[in-house]
Write a structure and sequence with these properties.
The complex is a heterodimer of chains A (363) and B (339). Chain A contains 13 helices and 4 strands. Chain A is of the alpha+beta class and 363 residues long. In chain A, helix 2 packs across helix 13 and helix 7 runs antiparallel to helix 10. Chain B is globular, with a radius of gyration of 25 Å. The chains are: A alpha+beta (363), B mainly alpha (339).
């Protein structure tokens, strides 16, 4: 097993071998891996909770670019930042106090959190002085740590895509499979439904549907609403392609054999026909995840998505709607970089998968 | 039943398969609009409260006044009754008055429609002006530095979220003060400007949103153009043309390009379909007085007539764009028989 002399390789091994040769796709895979690890371990990696407010230190500039190892006198401290003092109450301007280093400690005890059922107070890093918090990516208008909120927000933004595509792909597979296999009137009706949904002006409809649920809903509900609304529009395109594939797959002899054996028709669709669309499903799913990530961003940006105090990359970006924030506190666009990174990684990976899964591609 | 109708339509349009094709597509529009408008109407109905609910928070407005207002806006009655009333007026071309702005929906949308079309038209122009030459160049010199650059730019353009790009541009404008940060014209000085200055002012406001929308669209076209060029340049007829002694330039532009551009024509049709809604978030970020802001506000305020008209218009635009795409393809490529 695994030797190069093996004459035949399973489709998964072939896919993986081809994918591994694509540098951009592998880069995408690595970035996504890191992003998912980061958001899953958010409570441990972030120094605070996403709701913790340091009201007296709002709009604090990022410490990321102000990290030091040696102080002005040349003495080694390990990583530290200089304490900063607010100039006045009204403008959010800070001045570094070069005489007062605040060291960054690792594996510190901080705010309690529950992770995978384990209660803990351990954080990867934190400030040695509780009154001088560390803001790697700066703080927002309430003095919340942007780095922490990016990690927690990523949990929403990065999972919306996976959950959304799982739902819309399942519906697409079932509807496409049923329409393609049964044909006739079922096919006709289902395809008219698909055409109707494809002809709907998506964003308008999403806004109207979102409106049905009212503005003030609990956070878990608003999350589910965002996912369901996006999936409701998203499944139709998949269903159409899958129907087309099923039309040709069902002509295979093993389908006739299964029919002759008296298998139930839904079982034939699910067990014998749909698995053959798998490579299409994987490629399309990977390339469609950005649609859901960006959909969440659009809805949250328009203030009908994830609601405060919950964080998502989309609703964090709302702070950037104010031009004054953009010029005075440019770190409000940081969530945008993460959206960009995630979308780009999914695109690279999806493109690589498509090339790797293409049977016509040269070996 | 449908075939019967089709046969009759075939009778009117003498012997053209194209006529039947267009007729069949057009025949699908009324039921589609009916379904879309009903779904939208029902969803608006299902949303909690209505336009008057917000007014009810004002203690100075009495319950009787509220009831009167509901009656005046036609918000009383069941779903079917109200939808029927809307439909009856709509088929006569009357889409009603905006609740919040108290002017006719057509006047309201007409103003904004123009603005949206200016922006999406300009960006479409920019996208194609960039995509065609760059795509051809990258396709001709595969693997060259220029090709790698083009493919990187197109990946960048495909992946960068428009909201984010737009926000970066606003930040750029606000920091450098080289461009206005939003809007469509300088509202303060507008009346004192000569027509020439007004034009320059509008173009100045147009630059950044056009760059955002244009470059993000360029990516998809450029990639497609490059792929088509690569494929076409490998075809036998290109080698034949070269063998005849034609210059590379003639081969590329007269033979390869014209063949490679076909699939892009379809993309062009689809971009027409997205003319109204594609610029949505960019309009919001740049405070562009287009359809996006109008529709978002109307949806939030439950300004029913405006929402209904916007949705219907967007649907028609979508269907028309797709139809144009198919027709253009049939026109440009004689191998494809539309029908």
């Amino acid at each position: 097993m695994g030797t190069s002399t093996a004459p035949l390789q399973g489709p998964w091994r072939t896919l993986w071998r081809r994918l591994r040769r694509n540098r951009w796709a592998m880069a995408g895979l690595v970035v996504l891996g890191l992003l998912y690890i980061a958001v899953i371990f958010a409570p441990f990696l972030s120094p605070y909770s996403y709701t913790t407010q340091f009201r007296d230190q709002n709009w604090h500039p990022p410490h990321m670019t102000r990290l030091h190892l040696w102080d002005d006198a040349g003495a080694f401290h390990g990583p530290f930042v200089y304490a900063s003092n607010r100039l006045d109450e009204f403008t959010s301007e800070y001045e570094e106090d070069r005489a007062k280093p605040v060291e960054i400690d690792f594996f510190v005890r901080g705010e309690p959190y529950t992770f995978l059922g384990i209660e803990s107070t351990l954080h990867l890093f934190g400030s040695s002085d509780p009154t001088r918090p560390i803001f790697l990516f700066g703080s927002d208008k309430f003095g919340r740590d942007v780095f922490t909120r990016i990690l927690y927000g990523g949990r929403i933004s990065m999972s919306v895509g996976l959950l959304g595509i799982a739902i819309s792909m399942t519906i697409g597979l079932l509807i496409g499979g049923i329409a393609g296999y049964f044909g006739g009137r079922t096919d006709f009706l289902l395809m008219r439904l698909v055409e109707l949904i494809l002809a709907l002006p998506g964003l308008y409809l999403i806004l109207v549907i979102r409106q049905v649920f009212g503005r003030d809903v609990p956070s878990t509900q608003s999350y589910l609403i965002v996912v369901l609304v996006l999936a409701f529009i998203g499944w139709a395109g998949n269903a159409r392609v899958i129907r087309g594939m099923v039309l040709s797959i069902k002509e295979n002899e093993y389908v006739t054999a299964a029919e002759a054996l008296g298998q139930r028709r839904m079982a034939i669709i699910v067990r014998h026909i749909l698995p053959n669309t798998l490579s299409f499903v994987i490629v399309t799913a990977t390339l469609a995840v950005p649609y859901y990530i960006l959909g969440e961003v659009a809805l949250s940006f328009l203030s009908v998505g994830i609601q405060e105090p919950e964080a998502s990359w989309g609703n964090m970006l709302r702070d950037a709607q104010d031009v004054r924030n953009l010029t005075d506190f440019p770190w409000v666009v940081v969530p945008g970089f993460f959206i960009f990174l995630a979308v780009m990684a999914f695109n690279f990976l999806g493109d690589g998968l498509r090339d790797a899964a293409d049977p016509r591609a040269l070996e | 039943m449908t075939t019967g109708v089709l046969q009759r339509v075939r009778g009117w349009l003498p012997g053209s398969a194209l006529g039947v094709f267009v007729a069949r597509r057009l025949l699908a529009v009324p039921p589609l609009l009916l379904a879309v408008s009903f779904i939208t109407f029902a969803l608006l109905e299902a949303a909690p409260g209505d336009y008057v609910t917000r007014l009810a928070e004002d203690p100075h407005i009495s319950v009787e006044t509220l009831a009167q207002l509901r009656h005046r806006y036609g918000l009383d009655g069941g779903l079917m009754e109200r939808y029927g009333r809307w439909l009856l007026n709509a088929v006569q071309g009357d889409f009603g008055y905006s609740f919040s702005k108290e002017i006719g929906v057509f006047t309201l949308i007409g103003e904004r429609l123009g603005n949206t079309l200016v922006l999406s038209g300009a960006s479409l122009l920019l996208a194609w002006a960039l995509a065609l030459p760059l795509g051809v160049m990258a396709g001709m010199r595969q693997g060259s530095v220029a090709d790698k650059l083009v493919s990187f730019i197109s990946f960048f353009g495909l992946s960068i979220p428009r909201v984010f790009f737009a926000l970066l541009m606003v930040m750029f404008a606000a920091t450098t003060k080289w461009f206005p940060v939003g809007g469509m014209r300088d509202l303060v000085a507008w009346d004192t400007m000569t027509p020439w200055q007004q034009l320059v002012d509008q173009l100045h406001h147009l630059v950044l949103p056009t760059i955002v929308l244009g470059t993000t669209q360029t990516a998809a076209y450029m990639r497609q153009m490059r792929a088509e060029m690569v494929e076409t340049l490998g075809k036998d007829f290109v080698r034949t043309a070269r063998a005849k002694g034609l210059s590379m330039r003639q081969v590329v532009w007269k033979h390869a390009f014209l063949n490679a551009v076909n699939p892009l024509v379809t993309l062009f049709g689809y971009s027409l379909a997205a003319l109204l809604t594609g610029s949505f978030l960019v309009e919001i970020v740049f405070a562009w007085p287009g359809l996006a802001r109008l529709t978002v506000d109307a949806v939030f305020a439950q300004d029913e007539p405006v929402v209904m008209a916007s949705v219907c218009m967007a649907t028609v635009m979508l269907v028309a764009g797709n139809l144009i795409a198919d027709l253009l393809l049939g026109k440009i490529d004689p191998r494809i028989r539309v029908g």
